[in-house]
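Q: My labmate handed me this sequence with no annotations at all. I'd like to see what the chain might look like in three dimensions before we decide whether it's worth expressing. Could you predict it?
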Amino acid sequence: MSDAAAVVVGAGPVGMLAALLLGRLGVDTLVLERRDLPETLRPVAQQPDATDTMSRAIGIMPPSLDLLGTAGLADAFVDAGVRVATAYVHDARRVIGRLHFDGVHPRFPFVLSVPQARTEAILLSALRGAPDVEICSGFDVRAIRHDSTGVTVESAGGDRVRASVVIACDGSRSTVARLAGIRRTRSVYAERFFMADHHDRTDLGTDAHLWFTPDGAVESFPLPGGQRRWIVQLPPGVDPRRDEPVDLERVVCRRTGFRVDRSDRVWQSAFAPERSELDRFHSGRIVFAGDAARTMSPIGGQGMNTGFGDAAMIAPIVDALLRDPGRSLVEAWEQYSAARARAGRVATRRAAAGMRVGTMTGRLRSAVRSRAIEAVLRLGAPQLARHFAMITIPSSSGAA
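A: Here is what I predict for the chain of 400 residues:
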């Protein structure tokens, strides 16, 4: 392990994409990751009775595929995923509308479903062979020191590395943000969800299906390898992290009519959506991206894709700063922060609005919702498809 021009803290999807894009620009980049990374990442272990506290992303939007294409990885992702071209919206009795993604993008007319474990494996494999990029796993950041020419990052074991710029992609509980003294505003939504991946024995194919019922919402998405994800809204007061395991299969059957077998469950996760944002996205020579900068409800798949947009904007800025040391660091980070805060807030509002509409309960409100959704899909489905595919998220980098 040696010093580098740029250090990326965190080898999640956003951190790895940032490192890849920096490496392709010829920036000497070091990735620091607290976990011990194997040579290749494998899918999460099949633990039917394990409950995680956070959702795992599966949706990759067309603008993100454009970004992954700049890293030479679009084809690898498309080959690894399921192309979701249509989403069906149901109420408790019938299909109330369809959303087609076939017109949202000339090359990627779909939302790609790829489990996050597979996303990380593809990115890690690319990083292993990337020029100008080194990965250091098992590096638990415990101290950061600034001066006028760079940043020194120190691990719990006393190892030190120095860089001109640090890109913090270390998640919603960012150690780097805490060490930099940046405050995070955080709020947790009242809704609770439980999801599980199953071997798929339905006839739902490669389409997404959303059920909005008086008792709560159900979402279902295809996954590679003949699996399918089911997400159920939980009744008020139920918290699977504290209470008995959720009988997701019974909830799915009651709300949708589809019978899903518990023995087909291969992975599960309970989550409580939250939103958060740092007071500022930079501190001296440190800049924040992805969940380290902000979080949003995972409903709608906006979060990871917004982080990919952060990475795409950071890489050329860092390259320009290193090539022109006289360029104003503060001005560059202010431009980044303004653009990405705006993009993130739009995505966050959309995710919150989608969750709010989908989680209404009660017969009267559900009936009104069904009529409203039916009318919107009849009159504005193409624009709504662009909305959900994140084509219309503002970004100075041209991506979500």
